[in-house]
Design goal:
The protein has no helices and 20 strands. The chain is mostly beta strands. It folds into two domains: about 110 residues, Jelly Rolls (Sandwich), CATH 2.60.120; about 100 residues, Sandwich (Jelly Rolls), CATH 2.60.120.10. The N terminus is likely disordered. This is DUF861 domain-containing protein.
């Protein structure tokens, strides 16, 4: 998994639109690794270096997974998904709810009717922190650094984050973030980032002059190094999963 799954021309890959409109992103039906429990249902929009991928999955049924083969951040966009880790109470994920399934977790996955979720998955060499970690829309926010001053086209925003999952070895983090409105230049994105917007809207400007607009309920993935700008005029909140790839 050391090369992108396909050549992409769109910098910000839209994985899902909350209004039900189709997305321009191309998906390929493929498993994420040899032991992917969602091998038959996986739809991959992007797969790149260091074993990271993002996409959508539709699922109905029940799966027993003795050891989850990778780390996966997912957010339900349609239906209801139940994740029951061994020794823990079941976690019921409805619309716009998400969680991180850590590599090595023993769990049961259930969907009584069709469920659709967006996701960002990361290969792992060995389990680091087994279990299921919920993402929290009502987060325990702490102040976080704004974008560098030299990238801003206006006042610095007030940013906050609630990082609930970290794999230091893989440089992978997931949680909730919010910010007041701000405008940033088009610059290479510093990390791989999956995002599901919970509030507000963002205009992502691309180097070719095109703009991708995302609103609450939409999900996107931006690969590290792709040139992209940011413009928001209101509070934006999002679930995120990010990974920094070292050269």
């Amino acid at each position: 998994m050391d090369t992108p799954i396909a050549t992409r021309t769109t910098v910000a890959l839209v994985l899902h639109r909350a209004d039900g409109n189709p997305v321009a992103t191309e998906f390929q039906r493929a498993a994420f690794g040899r032991k992917d429990p969602f091998a038959r249902q996986r739809e991959i929009a992007w797969e790149g270096p260091k074993g990271i991928a993002a996409g959508c999955t539709s699922f109905i049924g029940e799966l027993e997974v003795a050891s989850f083969p990778h780390t996966e951040t997912l957010v339900v966009v349609e239906g209801e998904l139940i994740l029951a880790a061994e020794g823990a109470n079941p976690l019921v994920l409805g619309h716009d709810a998400g969680a991180v399934i850590a590599c090595g977790t023993s769990l049961r996955i259930q969907a009584a009717s069709r469920v659709r979720f967006v996701w960002c998955a990361l290969e792992c060499e060995r389990p680091v922190r087994a279990g299921i970690t919920p993402l929290r829309a009502e987060a325990d926010f702490e102040p976080s650094a704004p974008p560098p001053a030299h990238t801003l086209l206006g006042p610095a925003p007030q940013c906050r984050s609630d990082n609930v999952f970290t794999d230091e070895q893989a440089q992978y983090r997931a949680g909730t973030w919010d910010s007041t409105g701000y405008h940033r230049i088009v610059r290479p994105h510093p990390l791989n980032e999956f995002m599901h917007l919970l509030a507000g809207s963002v205009r992502f400007a691309c180097a070719d002059g095109s703009v991708v607009t995302a609103r609450a309920g939409d999900a996107l993935f931006v690969p590290q190094g792709e040139p992209v700008g940011w413009e928001s005029s209101e509070r934006v909140a999002k679930f995120y999963a990010v990974q920094t790839v070292q050269d």
